Structure formats: structure tokens, C-alpha cells
Amino acid sequence: MKYLTIILAIAGICFVACKKQESQIPNREMSDFSYTFVKTTSVEQYSEAGDIQATGIIMSESEARPSFKTGGVIHKTYVKEGDMVKKGQLLATLILDEIDAQVRQTEEGLIKAERDMSRVEKLFVDSVATLEQYQNVTTTFEVAKRTAEIARFNRNYSEVRSPIHGKIIKQIMRAGEITGPGTPVYAIMGVGSQDWVIRVGLVDRDWARVNINDKVMVRMDAYPGKTYEAYISAKTSVGGSASGTFDVEMKFKKSPTNLAAGLTGDVTINTFSKESFKVIPVESLVKTNGNTAKAFTIANGKAKSITLTIAKLLGDKVAISSGLDGVSEVVTIGAMYLEEGDLVKIK
After folding, report:
1. Phi, psi dihedral angles at 54 (to 5 degrees)
2. Cα 274 to Cα 47, 134, 277, 311, distances in angstroms
3. How far apart are CA 122 and CA 212, in angstroms?
4. Angle at 55 between CA 205 and CA 275, to 5 degrees
5. Where does 53-62+189-270 sit in CATH, by number?
6. Burial class (CB in 10 A: 0-12, 13-18, 19+), 309
7. What's the distance, CA 258 to chain centroid?
8. Taking the model in full, what pTM does it have?
9. Can you state the percent helix, strand and coil of the chain, rounding each to 5?
10. Which of 187, 217, 252, 340 lies at a CB distance of 3.0 to 4.6 Å from 170, suitable for a disulfide?
11. Under a CB-based contact definition with an 8 Å cutoff, are residues 53 and 266 in contact?
12. Measured distance CA(123)–CA(132) in Å, rounded
């Protein structure tokens, strides 16, 4: 009986101790294990600057590669690389022996055809020749006449003249060489102040923002410390297949006195077209497909998936053109582990 009393006393003490220890353990909500802890960030507003920065290449708008209309042996070239030429200036001629012989041959054939036609015409009037014979010689005469005109025309174009004012940048053919019809003899580039243009490749969004006559400021390494005014003179309608950019051409209002094709310059295009976007961190995007993406926001303590349209990348942030209406915060850390409707808590 004594031992039974001792055992019951020890059991009572252990029970009281366990209850006390249990009361010291903090209450832990079982629902915490069903939450996903995330971090969020506020959606920012971004206004695109009115100016567009780009790099352009100086090009000549006027270029020509004059050639002979007929083939032959080049007799003489009258200018060399580096020479300035005027429009219509004689540049080169062919040896005309063969061409002159062709002209004489066609002219002799024309004289004979005219003589035959005159004789048959008289016989036709005297009813000796038939109408068919008269028509045949008439046709022969007309063909000989046209052949002679072609020969004379080719004779007149057996020389090369400059089609533009400019500078000889390359002599392709020289005296004594055999050239064919359409083979360039010289490469000429216009170097007047009105010939120079700045060509810039812009991405599609920037291309759409600029307009003809927009003001442009140009700075070139060749002329440090100087700024030149220009304006947009043309916009291409076809994008570059490889680069994915669209060309814009600009002209100087007053160009430097000494320019060369291939010089580069930094251009600043002043445009009045401004656009505003909402901006979120790149890490908040969980799925992307081209210009669309998925992200999560929080609604009533649950994860809510939103579909976004990407406007452009801004370093570690992304500009969104649509999909953030009514959304003030997006999930960043933990977004990749969420599913639609998951319970979330912000840490």
C-alpha cells in the first residue's frame, strides 16, 4: 500500500510537470505550413525621355558607276582617282575602229535598201512589180533605217561621261582593257554639302516616334567639341533583315567642310513623342513568350496570376505596356513557386 501511494504521487508530479511544459510552448498556427512566404515590390511609373540617342554613319547620298553602252577596247581614260569631276564631263572613250565600221556597214545597207525600194516603186507604178514585192522592199528599207539609227546611237555612246558632280573614288577599268556593256569604269561619289547624309538604324519603337524634319544634334569624334545641327530627311519603309532595325536618314543644316564616307557620329534626336509605362523588376516574371509574360500579384491573401505585355527591357527592370491596370504590387522573391490561388504571406 505504501509503494502504491508513492507511485501515484510520482505520476501526479509528472502529469503536472508535463502540463506546465506544454503551456510554455508558444501557440503555432497549423495554417502557417500551408502558406507560401513571398516578397513583393511596388509597380513604378516610367516616362520615356523625349530624346533618342543613337550612333550614325556618314554616307553620300549621290553615287554613280558610269559605264559604256557598248563593249570594246578602252582607248583612253581622262581622270584618275581623287579627281573632282563635273556632271557631263568626258571620262573615257573606246577605240572606234570596229564601231565605225559597223556604222558604215549599216549606212551602206540603208543606201542599198533605199535604192531597191525606189526601183521597185517605179516598176510597181508601171504594173510590172506586184504589190507584195513593193511592200517587201519597203519593209526592208525601214529595217535598214532603224539598224543604222541603232549603230549611230551606239557610236555616240561609245564614251563615258560623269552623270553627277563628285569625286572619283575608284578607277575600275583602264586604257587597253576590254570592257563589256554596263561594266563600270569609275566609281564616283558626290561630296557636296547637299550630298552628305547620316544614316542611323533605330529599333521599331524609336522609329515610330520620329518624324520628318525632327531636329537632330550630331557630334563626331573627327571634330571633338563641336556640335552640328541636322534634321530627319527620310524614313525607310523596310526594316533590315539581319539587324532588325529601321534606317532613318538625316541631313546637315550646315555640314563640316571636310567629310568622308564611313565617319561615325553620335546623334541626339529631339522628338516630342513621349510614352509612359509601368515598370516592374525582371525577377517578377515567371514565364515569358516573346513580348508576353506571366507574373503574380496578391488578392485577398492569395496568389493571382496576371498576363503582361512587355514594351521594352530597362536593365534589371522591364517596362509593361498592358496588364498592370489596378495592380499596385507584384511578387518578386517566391514568384516562381506560386500557383494560381495559393495562400501567401508577405515577409
Report:
1. -160, 170
2. 7, 79, 10, 14
3. 70
4. 25
5. 2.40.30.170
6. middle
7. 27
8. 0.54
9. 25, 35, 35
10. 187
11. yes
12. 12
**97-157 belongs to CATH 3.40.50.10860:** no
* Strands across the sheet containing 44-47: 44-47, 276-281, 317-322, 302-314, 292-299, 287-289
For the chain, report the end-to-end CA distance as a whole number of angstroms.
60
So where are the chain's domains? 36-48+275-346, 53-62+189-270, 97-157
CA 186 – CA 178 distance, rounded (Å): 14
Cα(239)–Cα(65) distance, integer angstroms:
26
User: Which of 24, 10, 37, 21 lies closest to 298 in space, CA to CA?
Assistant: 37
Query: Under DSSP, is residue 222 helix (H, G, I), strand (E, B) or coil?
Result: coil
Contacts of 98 (CB under 8 A, 6+ apart): 72
Q: Could you tell me the fold of the domain covering 36-48+275-346?
A: 2.40.420
Vertex 297: Cα angle to 291 and 301 (nearest 5): 160
Tell me how far apart the alpha carbons of residues 109 and 141 are, in angstroms, rounded to a whole number.
Answer: 9
- C-alpha triplet 188, 194, 200: angle, nearest 5°: 85
- Which triple of cell numbers denotes residue 15? 502529469
Per-residue pLDDT of the chain (347 residues; tens, 9 = 90+): 444 444 445 555 554 444 444 444 444 444 555 778 888 898 888 776 668 889 999 999 889 999 998 888 999 999 999 999 999 999 999 998 888 888 899 999 999 999 999 999 888 888 888 999 889 999 999 999 999 998 888 888 888 999 999 999 999 999 999 998 889 999 999 988 788 999 999 888 788 888 899 899 999 988 998 999 999 999 888 876 566 788 999 999 988 888 888 899 999 998 766 667 889 998 899 888 878 899 999 988 888 999 999 887 878 888 888 888 888 899 998 888 888 888 888 87
- List all residues 6 or more positions away from 180 whose beta carbon is below 8 Å from its beta carbon: 71
Rounded Cα gap, residues 247 and 202, in angstroms: 6
Rounded to whole angstroms, the Cα distance separating 25 from 44 reads: 43
For residue 265, give the nearest of 214, 230, 213 by alpha carbon.
Answer: 230
